Amino acid sequence: MKFSLSVIVVSLGAASAFAFNSGSSQAVASFRSTQKGAALAQPAFKNHVQTDDSSTALAATAAAANSDAIKTRGGGALGGIDIPLMLYFLFWYVGNYYYNITNKLALKAAGGSAGFPMTISALQLAVGAIYGIFLWLAPDAREKPTVTMDDIIKMLPVAFCFAGAHSASVFALSAGAVSFGQIVKAAEPAFAAVLSQFVYNKPVSKAKWLCLPVIIGGVILASVKELDFAVSALVSACIANLFAAFKGNENKKLMETEGLKDRMGSVGNQFALTTILGFFMSLPFVFLREGNKLGEFVTLFKTNPVISSNLIASGLWFYGYNELATMTLKKTGAVTQSVANTAKRVIVIVGVAIVLGESLDPIKMLGCSIGIGGVFLYSIIDQLLAKKKEA
To answer: How sure is the predictor about 175, in pLDDT bands with cuts at 50, 70 and 90?
Structure first.
């Protein structure tokens, strides 16, 4: 792999995906000054034209600037298909896929779990934080949030859980195979169910509880034939699941704050703020665990392009695919979200295993299928039963 080329591709992809401001008056002015042909040729991830047989391209552009994502409708072969949404899905999957590859390459080059996983995870957040700040400073890119100090304080629990989930996940992927780490992370609903039921007093249906043994059984089965099995990878992935489950519940509480959504301005701003806070909150753990050998890491970063290029690339991919995932899921329903997440895990697990030469033992893949199938069933079981009752 040509690492310098990888960084260039990542940078261009991230810039085209996120250098926009949903609903920004600056963006509206910019698009209104664009000619019809140029508007139709804009990259897929900018707020661009919504074509319609009964309206002009210029009028559609102005209307599209007020929405989070643009739907492309009209006659012909693409009638009724939301092209930008399809591209959102595509680049979300591609971003997740390449993040896992570049992250693993950086971790291996830096010594694996015995090297600098905490440092690498923190610097990945730093890369995303810098990019988020760049979008606020760049002209016509993204409007700055108007959050108060009280809002920032309320965001700290979410940011801490976000940083904890990321750091634990990176450590898990440094200690074992990426495919195995992803299989264990697929069991996150089990942790979310326990927390919702016993910590946040939000009861989980019996049907969902019955899905959990299927998920856990699949993970156990996948672990039996895992050639790169490590207890530390299993434990770290479970800790990542725990932090992620806490983050989901804390985020719901946060967004109930009156006026917060308006002060943030966009989903992108929320993720940027969370990333910045998460980076600063991860620093004490970096110094605590790896502070005595940071000089060695600096030397490696300067002299080993495998580490430096893949660390920067993985940071951009991580920031990019997470923001895209949030935007994509915001536009879709619960069942679509479940299908999307399930498909994403399958693609990442199989694709990354092939590229990195990890084991694809039949028993492991059977366990993977059972576990991910159980997650999918967990996600839609309540809707299925509700429809059955209505019928």
So the answer is: confident
